[in-house]
Design goal:
The protein is built from six helices and nine strands, in the order E-H-E-E-E-H-E-E-H-E-E-E-H-H-H. It is of the alpha/beta class. It has a single domain, classed as Peptidyl-tRNA hydrolase (Rossmann fold), CATH 3.40.50. It has a seven-stranded mixed β-sheet with strand order 2-3-4-1-5-9-6, sandwiched between helices. Strands 7-8 form a two-stranded antiparallel sheet. A hairpin with a 2-residue loop joins strand 7 and strand 8. Helix 2 packs parallel to helix 3. The radius of gyration is 15 Å and the shape is globular.
Length: about 200
């Protein structure tokens, strides 16, 4: 199977992290998989993959959906392994993740950029390669989780309240719509224009 595009959702593995703020990337990937009737499998079941088993995956047409099984700070290990396996350029790997610099439920797409304060993104920038060097030239979709009241580390690992979860579920569905447009071949710049207009 030849994979042309990859979507990576960031989160921490384990049921204790379900619906925490840091795991909205996983929730988006779970919805994308559900929409195409796919189930995530261990990397050991990916045909021809001989690398470190540091992610789970499912396929959507010619795209690979990936959830790292490393903890957030080591997400780059999984993304580097997937890039090496698929041979895709960094521009063909979209990462979806939480951002506490955005209000709860706000969504933003960018074609490239630095990692900001996000440790998972910093790991990916170091792990992805373009011309043999680490790169930030890959698209990303940020899901707002709201600013931390005090302790940022405690904030990102906290679960959403019932009211917050209802709002975030809408954002997860909208994020999935945008990613599906990109997976169907729409250029990231066009996705940005179309969906940012809708979200604003």
């Amino acid at each position: 199977m030849v994979y042309e595009r990859v979507v990576v959702g960031l989160g921490n593995p384990g049921p204790e992290y379900d619906w925490t703020r840091h795991n909205v990337g996983f929730q988006v990937l779970d919805l994308l998989a559900a929409r195409c009737g796919a189930i995530f499998a261990n990397a050991s079941r990916l045909e021809g993959f001989a690398g470190k088993r540091c992610f789970t995956w499912c396929a959507r047409k010619s795209a690979l959906l990936v959830k790292p099984t490393t903890y957030m700070n080591l997400s780059g290990e999984a993304v580097a392994a997937v890039q090496q396996y698929t041979g895709v350029s960094s521009e063909s790997i979209l990462v979806v993740y939480d951002d506490f610099d955005l209000d709860l439920g706000r969504l933003r797409i960018r074609a490239q950029g630095g990692p900001g304060t996000h440790n998972g993104m910093r790991s990916i920038v170091n792990g992805l390669t373009a011309n043999g060097l680490g790169t930030d030239r890959f698209p990303r979709l940020r899901v707002g989780i709201g600013p931390p009241p005090t302790d940022a580390a405690r904030h990102v690992l906290a679960k959403f309240s019932e009211r917050e979860r209802a709002e975030v579920e809408i954002s997860i569905a909208e994020a999935s719509d945008a990613i599906e447009a990109w997976l169907d071949g729409e250029p990231i710049e066009r996705v940005m224009t179309r969906f940012h207009s809708r979200w604003n």
